[in-house]
């Protein structure tokens, strides 16, 4: 299987102007991800895990290194140098991102949020409505909440909705930033089921986790971060 993602010597530094100090979040990070593979990154808080994902998604612009992604539309593209227009396209059609926090307009309902994600990919309203109801049901969100504003949801409900919105698009590459952080065991199992389904359908996933039990028998490859660097590599035994 060919690599879908190649990260080469990636570095990101944050400048704290108020104290005139630089923090090296990650330094010389290099790894590759094969198509259809599920790669997990573990490590303590502050070790640089989220920074890697945000550089790939281009929430952060790296100071050094390259991020080569094999796009269906653009072919091999360096995400570090991609234009804003290219990044917007990739986020809409190819690269999904799940964080611990739901960013949504205050006056949008759960149904509208998920449906919007499907419609913007070019699907018809009827299909979008059907898929929306299917995934909201899977995550056991109370149907009485579907037409409520997401701002009124609990933390756990928002996280489930965030995962639903990203997964319903079936992206080519899915980035997962602590996707099960505040979920109960039953909700975690629902997330696992969908991850396994997406994996079988060919979605490539790169996720960071504190919950190593959740990762067991799910990730094909595990990297461990320590003080901004990758220090260990482990491949799942078959």
Low-confidence stretches: none
| Helix share, percent | 25-40%
Q: Strand order, main sheet: write it out.
A: 6-7-8-3-9-10
Quote the beta fraction. Answer: 25-35%
**CATH topology tier name:** Rossmann fold
Counting helices, strands and paired strands, the structural category is alpha/beta
CATH architecture: 3-Layer(aba) Sandwich
The domain tally reads: 1
Distance between the termini: 17 Å
- CATH superfamily caption: P-loop containing nucleotide triphosphate hydrolases
Please tell me what the overall shape is: globular
CATH class: Alpha Beta
Secondary-structure element order, as H and E? EEEHEEHEHHHEHEHEE
Question: How is this structure best described in words?
Answer:
This protein is α/β, with parallel strands linked by helices. 32% of the residues lie in helices and 31% in strands. The chain contains seven helices and ten strands. The strands form two sheets. The protein has a six-stranded mixed β-sheet with strand order 6-7-8-3-9-10, sandwiched between helices. A hairpin with a 4-residue loop joins strand 1 (3-16) and strand 2 (21-34). It is globular, with a radius of gyration of 18 Å. The mean pLDDT is 87. It is a peripheral membrane protein. It comes from Aeribacillus alveayuensis. Its EC number is 2.7.8.37.
């Amino acid at each position: 299987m060919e690599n879908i993602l190649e990260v080469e010597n990636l570095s990101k530094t944050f400048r704290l102007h108020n104290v005139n100090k630089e923090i090296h979040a990650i330094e010389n990070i290099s790894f590759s991800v094969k198509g259809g593979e599920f790669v997990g990154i573990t490590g303590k808080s502050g070790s640089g895990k989220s920074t890697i994902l945000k550089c790939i998604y281009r929430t952060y612009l790296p100071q050094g290194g390259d991020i080569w992604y094999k796009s269906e539309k653009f072919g091999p593209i360096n995400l570090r140098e991609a234009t804003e227009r290219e990044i917007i396209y990739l986020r809409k059609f190819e690269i999904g991102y799940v964080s611990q926090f739901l960013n949504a307009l205050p006056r949008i309902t759960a149904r509208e949020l998920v449906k919007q994600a499907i419609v913007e990919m070019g699907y018809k309203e009827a299909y979008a409505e059907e898929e929306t109801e299917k995934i909201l049901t899977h995550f056991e969100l109370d149907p009485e909440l579907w037409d409520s504003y997401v701002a009124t949801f609990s933390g756990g409900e928002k996280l489930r909705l965030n995962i639903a919105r990203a997964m319903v698009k079936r992206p080519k590459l899915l980035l997962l930033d602590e996707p099960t952080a505040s979920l109960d065991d039953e909700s975690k199992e629902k997330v696992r089921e969908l991850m396994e389904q997406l994996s079988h359908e060919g979605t490539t996933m790169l996720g960071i986790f504190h919950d190593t039990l959740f990762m067991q028998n799910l990730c094909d490859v595990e990297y461990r971060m320590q003080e901004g660097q990758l220090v260990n590599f482990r491949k799942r035994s078959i």
